[in-house]
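#structure-requests
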Amino acid sequence: MLKFLLLVILVAVAVYLTTRALQRRGEIQAPRAQRRPRPEPPRVIGPDDDPDFLRDLDRRRKHPEDPDV
């Protein structure tokens, strides 16, 4: 069991050192830690949040025979 653990540790160190050497040579690009935040989409407002809609609704209720509304 001790030999197996030693072998795993040696393989892990070898992989780590190989990766570091390749990164320093520039063959493998290191992953970027910082990502650009995505812009938020514009907020969609519902008709009950729109003051023009509510004003027009109130106008329709007061004057239902108005042809231009």
